Each structure stands twice: as C-alpha cells, then as structure tokens.
Amino acid sequence: MDIIQSFNALCSNADFISVYNERMGTNLTRLTMKHVFSTGSLYHCVSIKFGDGSGELRICDGYHDIMFNNQLYIASGDFLDVQNSPESKEINNNGMSVKISNVRPEYVQLIRNKKFDRAIVTISMVFLSPQTGQVQTSFGVFRGQIDSSTIRIDYGHDEEIISETEIKINNFWEVLNKSARYHASDGVHRSYAGNSHDTFFQKIGKWNSEAVWMTKK
C-alpha cells in the first residue's frame, strides 16, 4: 500500500471518524487529512541500535508504550522537537535532530557512557487508532547514524531534576562529505586493502622513467 492509499484508508477509518464526530459534534462519513491529524493520533517511534553492537533502544513519544512491528517502543520523556527531513531531488547528507526532555535516568547514563556514539537510528511516524491504541499505518521518516548527543541537566527547587537531550543524526549519505585520500606512490597504493595486485602506479612510474622530455623549438 503506497502513501496515498494509506492516507485514504485513514480518512475512511471508522475509529477515526467516530472519535472526530464525537469531539466536534459533527456527523461526517469521511475525514480529510486535516481532520485525521486533529485526532491526536500521530506519534514517532525511534529505534537506536548501539554502534558497538551491544543492543537496541526503542522509544516513542506516545502517552503509553507502543507495539510496532512486533516490538515494544517505550514511552520515554517528551519529544520537544523532531526536525522534519527535507525533501530533495539530489543526494545529499541532510541530517536531522531530535530533542527530548525528561529523559529516563537509565538513558541519561547511556548517553554519558557514549553508547549513542555512531549508533544507527531509524525514525518512523505511526498513526494509532484512537479507539484501540493499535498502529493503523506507519511511514518511514528517517534512517541514519548519530553524529553527536548532548544532555543538559538542571537541578531545580524541591529536588526536581529537569533534563533535556539533543541527538544530531547524519543520514547515510554522510560519506559524500568525505574527500578521497591523495596517494600516487606505488607502495602506498598497494598497501591499501584490495590494491595489492594493482600495478597501475608502478606502470605509470616506468612510463615516466622511460619518457624522453624535449623542449619544443
């Protein structure tokens, strides 16, 4: 099912229509996308696979835990901002950032221990049924690798602790930002993996040594 079909299905979904009519005092038989978004059924599910392969953290911005793709996403803090991923006809390293407040203490410790460094992040947008709380449809938003993670902790009055975390993510086209190494020496070239039998630069050196350089009169 493509995106248009998925949104059309939401607009004609009985649970969404029933909740909207109840809240707004209307008697609609089909919703618009604006109506669907107004039901407050849109959430984000974020999967973070640690770069050292030691595990995966799954969190969401729902009021309760969300079961998505047979995996449990834990309601964790408040998502202050999930930056929109820009659309482009070109292939670029367009990253994004996620800000979360009131992060669980165990997650704060993970950040401090650098467990998020170079972790793989997958962000999905899900619509939950306002009647059952089950995922009705989902859309992939972003997939990339964490570039940096920072956390700010404020110790307020009455021992209240307020934390805010910002995670900056590169997409997988980050490699485009890197420049190739410059090396023309045959020994250096053949020292790289996969180049041990490549004699290109050796031949270039031989050709240069045999060349007769003359000035044009």
Can you offer a commentary on this structure?
24% of the residues lie in helices and 34% in strands. The protein has a 9-stranded mixed β-sheet, with helices on both faces. The protein folds into 2 domains: 1-40, no CATH class; 42-177, Elongation Factor Tu (Ef-tu), domain 3, CATH 2.40.30. The chain has helices at 3-11, 14-24, 33-38, 105-112, 186-191, 200-210; strands at 42-49, 56-60, 66-68, 71-75, 78-82, 96-101, 120-128, 135-155, 161-171. The longest helix has 11 residues, at 14-24. The model is unreliable at 173-177 (pLDDT under 50). The protein is α+β, with helices and mostly antiparallel strands and 217 residues long. The N and C termini lie far apart (73 Å). A hairpin with a 2-residue loop joins strand 3 (66-68) and strand 4 (71-75). It is flat and about 80 Å long.
Q: Keywords for this structure?
A:
217 residues, alpha+beta, Elongation Factor Tu (Ef-tu), domain 3, 2 domains, 9-stranded mixed beta sheet, 6 helices, 34% strand, flat
Short recap of the structure:
The chain has 217 residues and is α+β, with helices and mostly antiparallel strands. The chain has six helices and nine strands. Helix content is 24%, strand content 34%.
